[in-house]
Amino acid sequence: MRAFVFGGGEIFPEYIEERVQDGDIVVCADSGYKNALSMGVKVDVLVGDFDSLGSVPDGDFELVRVPAEKNSTDTQLAVDIAIERGADEMIIVSSTSGRVDHALSAMAILEYLWTKRIPAVVVNGQNRVRFIRDSGAIIIRSQYKYFSVVTLDAVAKKVSIDGAKYPLVKKDIERGFQFAVSNEIVKNAALITVKKGSVYIIESRDV
């Protein structure tokens, strides 16, 4: 089952390609409820302390209230609820701009989901982010003009990029020298492989 998890912050609904379909579950984290409404999505579960939303809305959904002081973000809790409900694929609709701590924490959840072997992306319409480790990914050419490969380790070893304007063949990327940024797909798709290391693959567009 695929899950849509809506977090807070700025999104661009008109540019988000991923859409909720029959059989998907929708879990909102606090003010992510507003983002779900902006996309005309029916909410199944709403979780949070509601400090961002300001109040608890009425609706035909399951409500999970949590304390303001806790060890997990509302988005992380929403992700865990989706997993408990049987999600084996996840779309996290959340801001990747604005507060950097919120953006990075949402992106970090991708690594958590990778350890559980759950395919996932974080999207907001301007960016789409994936995480891979010691693996590869195919990126289909789309509305996103640019893509970047950003290493999280001291060194991502033997990184290759095929089908792009700036190809790479088994090059190491250092965390302190992120040169694989603002690439462009020139074929129908680009193939990114990493022999050893963890990276974010970030597709971006100007809005």
- Number of alpha- plus pi-helical segments: 3
Structural class: alpha/beta
Count of DSSP E strands? 13
Question: Looking at the chains present, what oligomeric state does this protein adopt?
Answer: single chain
Largest sheet properties: 9 strands, mixed
Poorly predicted residue ranges? none
Shape: elongated
What percent strand? 35-45%
Strand order of the largest sheet: 4-3-2-1-5-6-7-13-9
Average the pLDDT over all residues and give the rounded result.
94
The amount of helix comes to 10-25%
Can you describe this structure in just a few lines?
With 207 residues, the chain is an alpha/beta fold. It has three helices and 13 strands, in the order ββαββαβαββββββββ. Helix content is 16%, strand content 36%.
Task: Walk me through this protein's architecture.
- By secondary structure, the chain is of the alpha/beta class.
- Helices cover 16% and strands 36% of the residues.
- The protein is built from three helices and 13 strands; from the N terminus they run ββαββαβαββββββββ.
- A nine-stranded mixed β-sheet has the order 4-3-2-1-5-6-7-13-9. Strands 8-12-10-11 form a four-stranded antiparallel β-sheet, with no helix packed on it.
- Strand 2, helix 1 and strand 3 form a beta-alpha-beta unit.
